């Protein structure tokens, strides 16, 4: 019952703040909800100076939710599937070289660069974290969050090519980032002496390619079932089964569930919509997943803001986080520039496109969830705290200004 009351409170707050945003502020919904969540959290923390019991009560309620498990185990499957339904295969095919290279090589470059940056910045603040844990931070913070990115793009008029690159890369680098993080975490847990290069490569290949193949199989199974009937209620249930049953299957098979959901969503949104659905089913299914996406996004961003209450924070972490957030912007451009230079498609995109992708590459809930999923260690708190600072900086500072930056770059 306590969990129900907690989720009821979150939905109520999200609805109230969404109303205020639509009525007065008109910011992208994700930004407004996180901003309101942060302000609410600061209000709760401030209230703790007058009534410590009140803040402690709120903290206890929030701790009822395992945020990492809630996002990675439940929300992520729905959000990635809903987001990938809108990706066009012809557009994706046209930009496949850039999307694949950004999502793979770009994420690897960013992981290494951010990891080393953190390793050398921390001693300046009398903090020390082993290089492997710094690389874990690099892996969890490098992927751009498709949930945050797509929320921003709804308000920005970009060319189809740039939009496809941003959305496609954010969907796939999310899955790749989770795989890199899982691989590094396994290495840290087993020890570098017990987990060699061949083991690392094998785990990466199994997670990534296994997830892609599982997604194709899930998407094809859903397509065949939908094609054999014409009943929109059942077809919506089939899409839900693809997400919930498919994600659970991936977990059991130890392959990447995020990548599987992206592939299943792309197949359903293209082949499924064109060949397996009537006009009525297409309309109802699209609206169902659009509403699901909006509601879950509202809960997610509200919760990210409020989670500040449960983080054991140190003022030094704020400065480190801001420095890393600024470094991350430079690393983001570098990790995009290198693939365009190596694979010679820089002319097709141009520096302006790379700058738009750099500033529009927001970090979000996935980074927070991955940091919270770290096993207990002396370094977990500092990584979680810095992650929160970077994510809040990214969504609020970059998110609020991205429209103006894009208009400036396009002029």
Automatic annotation (TrEMBL):
Record flagged with keyword Membrane: yes
Location(s), subcellular: Cell membrane
Cellular component terms per the entry's GO annotation: plasma membrane
Pfam families per the UniProt record, alphabetical: Na_H_Exchanger
Membrane topology: Multi-pass membrane protein
Primary site of residence: membrane
GO biological process, one term: sodium ion import across plasma membrane
Residue ranges crossing the lipid bilayer per the database entry: 6-24, 31-50, 70-87, 99-124, 130-153, 208-226, 246-267, 295-313, 319-342, 354-376, 382-402
Superkingdom field: Bacteria
Domain Cation/H+ exchanger transmembrane: 13-407
Keyword line: Antiport, Cell membrane, Ion transport, Membrane, Sodium, Sodium transport, Transmembrane, Transmembrane helix, Transport
InterPro entries, per database record: Cation/H_exchanger_CPA1, Cation/H_exchanger_TM
A molecular-function term among this protein's GO annotations: potassium:proton antiporter activity
Family assignment from sequence similarity: Belongs to the monovalent cation:proton antiporter 1 (CPA1) transporter (TC 2.A.36) family.
Annotated protein name in UniProt: Sodium:proton antiporter
Source organism (scientific name): Chryseobacterium hagamense
């Amino acid at each position: 019952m306590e969990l129900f009351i907690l989720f009821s409170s979150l939905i109520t707050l999200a609805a109230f703040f969404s109303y205020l945003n639509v009525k007065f502020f008109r910011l992208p919904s994700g930004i407004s909800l996180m901003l309101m969540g942060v302000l609410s959290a600061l209000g709760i923390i401030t209230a703790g100076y007058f009534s410590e019991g009140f803040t402690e009560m709120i903290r206890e309620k929030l701790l009822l939710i395992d945020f990492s498990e809630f996002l990675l185990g439940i929300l992520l499957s729905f959000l990635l599937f809903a987001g990938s339904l809108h990706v066009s295969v012809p557009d994706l095919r046209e930009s496949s070289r850039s999307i694949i290279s950004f999502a793979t090589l770009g994420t690897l470059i960013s992981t290494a660069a951010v990891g080393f940056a953190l390793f050398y910045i921390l001693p300046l603040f009398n903090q020390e974290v082993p290089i492997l844990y710094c690389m874990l931070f690099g892996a969890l913070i490098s992927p751009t969050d498709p949930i945050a990115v797509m929320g921003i793009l709804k308000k920005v008029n970009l060319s189809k090519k740039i939009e496809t690159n941003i959305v496609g890369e954010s969907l796939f680098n999310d899955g790749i980032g989770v795989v890199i993080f899982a691989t590094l975490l396994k290495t840290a847990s087993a020890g570098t002496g017990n987990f060699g290069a061949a083991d690392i490569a094998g785990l990466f290949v199994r997670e990534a390619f296994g997830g892609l193949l599982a997604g194709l199989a899930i998407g094809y199974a859903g397509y065949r079932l939908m094609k054999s009937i014409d009943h929109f209620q059942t077809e919506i249930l089939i899409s839900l089964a693809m997400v919930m049953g498919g994600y659970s299957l991936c977990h059991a098979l130890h392959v990447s569930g995020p990548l599987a959901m992206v592939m299943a969503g792309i197949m359903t949104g293209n082949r499924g919509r064109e060949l397996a659905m009537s006009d009525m089913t297409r309309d109802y299914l699209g609206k169902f997943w659009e509403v699901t996406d909006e509601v879950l996004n509202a809960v997610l961003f509200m919760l990210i803001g409020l989670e500040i209450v449960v983080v054991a924070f140190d003022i030094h972490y704020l400065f480190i986080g801001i420095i890393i957030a600024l470094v991350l912007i430079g690393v983001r451009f570098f990790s995009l520039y290198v693939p365009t230079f190596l694979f010679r498609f820089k002319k097709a995109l141009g520096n302006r496109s790379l700058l738009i992708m750099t500033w529009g590459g927001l970090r979000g809930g996935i980074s927070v969830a991955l940091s919270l999923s770290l096993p207990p260690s002396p370094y977990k708190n500092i990584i979680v705290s810095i992650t929160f600072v970077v994510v809040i900086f990214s969504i609020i500072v970059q998110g609020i200004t991205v429209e103006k930056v894009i208009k400036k770059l396009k002029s």
